């Protein structure tokens, strides 16, 4: 069976000078929460953007054994969803963002259809209430969905964008860029628990996560694999504390 994601010798050029990183190769398999660490500025966020086809790169990326382009980039980005560290830079409101993401996610997974059928819903209708409910479970009031991103606090924006990623239930792979960096410890734990339980739920679409964190403790709590990016490439470690 092919890996969920496979990166082969990825490098990211700069307009001038040495590439940000080069020769990054690894696979993500079903059930993995791959912790990505490395010093500030080494290129972790850039790598996630390359994987999501939001940044130019050299090398090859395969999703379920096929090149990302063969899915069509918008559809691919729905299956392999980048969750930004600073969603406050997005234009419009969370509801606007949700509408644009949902537009590309019209092909729902079988598991999503099964869950909708169980609830007696028409699976072809996208339901924002799932995202709102996930947000509520993390203390996000419904009115925030209609406020401009720029007017949400860092922690509110971070929880809203994560609620979209989870509630949409369209992505098999989530690329999480320091997803709890603006959250208090209690909210962070709640987010960690929801994401890990989604990954374990056989009815969930979610199959794998690449998770950037600077916190060794968080890496140890949620990670199943531990990698470090260096200017020379990527190194896999056996435990969070080795990084
Ligand atoms: N849009 C851009 N234009 C030019 N350089 C950029 C751009 N975005 C990032 N960089 C540079 O690319 C390098 C990698 O940045 P990146 O944000 O990927 O690092 P990071 O490892 O995620 O850092 P941190 O841990 O501080 O978030 C840095 O030197 C950064 O200044």
UniProtKB/TrEMBL annotation:
ABC transporter domain ranges (all copies): 5-243
InterPro entries named among the record's database cross-references: AAA+_ATPase, ABC_transporter-like_ATP-bd, ABC_transporter-like_CS, P-loop_NTPase
Keyword Zinc assigned: no
Endpoints of the signal sequence: none
Keywords from the UniProt entry: ATP-binding, Nucleotide-binding
Cited Pfam families: ABC_tran
A GO molecular-function descriptor: ATP hydrolysis activity
Gene3D superfamilies given in the database record: P-loop containing nucleotide triphosphate hydrolases (3.40.50.300)
Entry-linked PANTHER family: ABC TRANSPORT PROTEIN ATP-BINDING COMPONENT-RELATED (PTHR43119), ABC TRANSPORTER DOMAIN-CONTAINING PROTEIN (PTHR43119:SF1)
Protein's name in the database: ABC transporter domain-containing protein
Species for this entry: Jaapia argillacea MUCL 33604
